[in-house]
Give the backbone structure.
Amino acid sequence: MNQTLNYNIHDILKFKITRDRDHGLRDLINIKFSFFEVEEVDNPDIMLNIGKFTPSNKNCYLVDHKYYIKENYFYCKDSEGKAEWEVEISGFEDGETTINFNGRIKGFQSFMNPDFIAQNLLIRLIEYKLSKKGYFLAHSAGISKNGQAYVFAGRGGTFKTSLCMDFIRKAGFEFLGDDRVILHKDKVFGFPMSLRVFGFMCKHLPNEDFWNIFNKIRFAKWLWDTKSENVNPVEIGEPSKLKSLLFIVKTNREVITVREISLKEAVDRLITNNRLEDFISLGGMGINSGPHLRYALAYSYIFPDSGMVKHQEDLGTMLRNILENVPIYEIEIPYNYDQNVFKKVRKFIESLE
């Protein structure tokens, strides 16, 4: 029996996921968008159907022997590492978008992350759709207090999550997201993903580096014990005014330094930071985080004047308008995170209030 899940992102973008089965307890970990789940949505911007399908790929251009492309349409069979899949996207660059996806991952990940590739394709299309509406889905963390938001941008492993945890636990801040936030005009909108994972860390771990087999067992038990609780494990902040953008950079030095950076550098970094997410290698699966960039490039080869081609330029213009009057800094932190790092970052942020 099919299961349909409905989502509404701040009344900005709506989508549905239809699957051929319920994945039970795993969904507490793996449904990235559970914070936005609602009972029903009308006129969704995106429909994701997971399961077997028959493609409508007649009268297409064929690129690289496997990408079937026509106007506003993409289809292919693909594989990488331990995964193989078939995907069809109608409404690829504008209008309502329908994604038909059927795939599998071999081994243990087939149990823990059965919908992983489908969800990563979906988040790239959410990013694209939001940008067409004037919103930038940034690979960044965010916290807020008294109606003011602070965004931490940076690559994985720079302790954005640990900083969020400590600001929530020790400085009275609310959570906006530790992996994505939405920027629009002078506002930051929360985009909390994998909320139960963050909630467990915030309650039980000193920082994000403390994942070991013992804590993974504790996490599984905590998930089971709280599976029927329909509450968020941490307080989620309302959309708040963007007070400052802070790029967090890890170094092998022991000192913490702060410098102000230019609007151009900030815009270029944010766009590059998002694009690098397409090349994150996922341990144990032998695949990158999402094939959408390859698909967009193949589509743009056939349609060089498409919205996909102008997407990067449009993002730059939008971000310059968003960040024009916002203080922007780079904070260099040592390789190892401790409370001294948090205290110094906190002191700097408090100087901005």
Summary: The mean pLDDT is 89. The first helix runs from residue 27 to 30. DSSP finds ten helices and 20 strands in the chain.
